[in-house]
Amino acid sequence: METMNELTEYVKSKAKEYLEETGETIDVFPSSIVDFVIEYISQGCHFPSHFTEKNIVSDLAKGKNSLAMACVDVYSKAGAEGQTSHSENSISRVYDSSWISPKITANFPNYVTIL
Question: Per-block average pLDDT, block size 10, for the chain (115 residues)?
């Protein structure tokens, strides 16, 4: 993978695949979620200003399946309205966070340095 578009398409396809493994059917995984997750993770990496798109994609692609899982994480919390747990009709759900689970994003690089 060399371009952000290639990475985005891979993540979108893999997120759809992960979601369908849970029994949910979806025609197309929402691009807005994929774009948001990639942007959110990229900002958290603090890539150096000299990095080209190819450098950024190379680093993000190392965690491309984690990006897809983060997309599913965001998608599955739609309508949860910031809740970290919910019970209804004998079904209980508990989330690490009302946001993207830190366990999913922990393995992405962080280029922040202290001077």
Answer: 95 96 92 95 93 95 95 81 71 68 85 69
